[in-house]
Specification:
- By secondary structure, the protein is of the alpha/beta class.
- It has 2 domains: 174 residues, 3-Layer(aba) Sandwich (Rossmann fold); 200 residues, Dehydroquinate synthase-like - alpha domain (Dehydroquinate synthase-like, alpha domain), CATH 1.20.1090.10.
- Helix content is 51%, strand content 9%.
- It has 16 helices and 7 strands.
- The longest helix is centred in the middle third of the chain and has 20 residues.
- It is globular, with a radius of gyration of 20 Å.
């Protein structure tokens, strides 16, 4: 069996690599980029630093108005329409996205819609969108989504609360800058949520039915970097070694799941986020212990490998013992990172239970549960959702 591996054309990595942005733009022959940035980055001075870099290099770019920094935490098609119109009207020839997964996901959608038109629903799976979009340079500021290295984007249909998964070469950034110094100001809650998201990417890529020899190595390396450093970064955001490990681990996890796909956790997580506005990494964290417990019987060796890669168990540990340790650690890390239950997050039990059936259907429609080592029925997904309240 063969596997097609898709990666960014160029990746600059390490402290201070943001300074390489003008050279990256030149290498992509991008002379007039449109900037899409998280609004908070303006307050932190990152946007002005970016502007100064480009201005010093003589690069013309979009004005630093509210338009360029208007990024929703869970982007919808409506939230990106102003940017799509601005890119078309201004004849911009590329996009620079700076921020978390929402900024980069928004930019991916803009890069496609600005070039080809239509609606995001036209591009959602099962369609494979391989047409070349506007060139995109993705610069993550959180160690979580790995979106700078993936061929996916997720945009919510506000009319139905469906999180539309879109995939293909069109959504793979042409270049990425992975500078962990940009994550030093990320607060503990976001650090925890994005870190668990990255860990989930690595675990699911490794146990996915679409896993391959290439993605396996990236996934195992990502787990080895993320798991031992997650609590340390949560407790001390200035821990530069741990920040770097998490940022590189998140990037490798993105490479892994982009080339192997995610599985049941992500399939079930997206509807929780869409219906109850739970941050994506947080809904992953809520589900990860229960879904892992459900899935282990179908992939005991693979999950044991995860425990060992995460340095939770020695190499000679039996599968059963390693998996028991993994399950206990997943629950323990949620407690240490103060991951709330749905109820503690503020969701009413009645509202949640009313949505269980439709959430299970939406999870199944995404296709991700079909990659799980143990493929669930609709009823089994409903039971996992209900388990979150026990």
């Amino acid at each position: 069996m063969t596997h097609t591996i898709v990666l960014p054309r160029l990746v600059e990595i390490g402290a201070g690599s943001l300074e390489k942005l003008p050279q990256l733009l030149a290498s992509l022959n991008c002379q007039k980029p449109y900037l899409i940035c998280d609004g908070i980055l303006q307050q932190l001075g990152v946007v002005n630093r970016l502007a100064d870099l480009l201005a010093a290099a003589g690069v013309s770019f979009s004005p630093l108005t509210d338009l360029t920094t208007k990024v929703m935490p869970e982007p919808t098609e409506d939230s990106i329409q102003d940017a799509v119109a601005a890119v078309r009207a201004g004849n911009f020839d590329g996009i620079v996205a700076v921020g978390g997964g929402s900024a980069i996901d928004s930019a991916k959608a803009v890069a496609v819609l600005a070039k080809y038109g239509g609606a995001m629903r036209d591009y959602k799976v099962p369609r494979q969108v391989d047409e070349p979009a506007l060139p995109l340079i993705a610069i993550p500021t959180t160690a979580g989504t790995g979106s700078e290295a993936t061929q996916f984007t997720i945009i919510t249909d506000a009319s139905s609360d469906e999180k539309m998964l879109c995939r293909g070469l069109a959504f793979m950034p042409m270049a990425a800058i992975v500078d962990y110094e940009l994550s030093l100001s990320v607060p503990p809650r976001v650090t925890a949520d994005t870190g668990i998201d990255a860990l989930t990417h690595a675990i699911e890529a490794y146990v996915s039915a679409k896993a391959n020899a290439y993605s396996d190595q990236q996934a195992l390396a990502a787990m080895a970097l993320i798991a031992p450093n997650l609590e340390a970064v949560y407790l001390d955001g200035d821990n530069r070694l741990a920040r770097e490990a998490l940022m590189v681990g998140s990037h490798l996890a993105g490479v892994a799941f982009s080339n192997a796909s995610v599985a049941l956790v992500h399939g079930m997580s997206r509807p929780i986020g869409a219906h109850f506005h739970v941050p994506h990494g947080l809904s992953n964290a809520m589900l990860l212990p229960a879904v892992t417990r459900f899935s282990i019987p179908a992939a005991e060796q693979r999950y044991a490998d995860c425990a060992k890669a995460m340095k939770l168990a020695p190499a000679d540990t039996s599968n059963a013992k390693a998996n028991d340790t993994l399950l206990r650690w997943l629950s323990a890390i949620n407690a240490k990172l103060q991951v709330p239950s749905p109820e503690a997050f503020g969701i009413s039990r009645d509202s949640f239970m009313e949505k269980v059936s439709i959430m299970a259907e939406q999870a199944q429609d995404s296709g991700s549960p079909g990659n799980n080592p143990r493929v669930p029925s609709l009823k089994e997904m409903e039971e996992i959702y209900q388990e979150l309240w026990e």
